[in-house]
From TrEMBL:
Residues 12-91 form the Pyridoxamine 5'-phosphate oxidase N-terminal domain. The lineage of its organism: Bacteria, Bacillati, Bacillota, Bacilli, Bacillales. Transmembrane segments: none annotated. InterPro entries: Pyridox_Oxase_N, Split_barrel_FMN-bd. This is Pyridoxamine 5'-phosphate oxidase N-terminal domain-containing protein.
Amino acid sequence: MTNRVESHLTTDLFDFLQRERFVTISTIDYETGGPNVHAISWVFSPNREQIRFALDNRSRIVKNIKQNPLTVLTLITSDTTYSINGNAFIKEENLADVPLKLALVELEVKEVRDVMFYGSKITYGPKFEKTYDLEAATKLDLQVMKAIKKA
C-alpha cells in the first residue's frame, strides 16, 4: 500500500484486526491540546470501515475522545506500519459481561496510510505477553474480545 491512501481498511488489515493486537492510539489531550499516545491491545474490526477497542472507562483516552473525536491508531504488521485516522466515539460507557469497568470505543475509519519510511520493511513485528496471572489474563482477554465482537 506504499504511497497510497485508502478510505477503509484493506482486506489484509481487516484480517489482521480480527484478534487482540498491539496498537498505539493517539488522541488530542483534553487539558493541554497536545498529542497523547497510549498502547492498547483489546482491538477488533467488525468491518472495513470501523475499529472497536476497549479500555478503562476512567482512562484519559476516553476523556480526550469525548472532548475531540480525532483519533489515530498506529499498527505494525509483518511488513510495514499503518496510520489509521478517523473520528472515535464512546459506543458504550460500560462494556457488558466484563468484570472490569471498560468503555467500548468505535473508530470510524476515514484514512489508512502506509507510513513506513521509504526503502524499508518491518522484519519482526511487535510481540507482547501478559505479566500478571496468565490464567486470569486469558480469561479476561476472552471475555473482553467476546464483548467487543458482540457489541
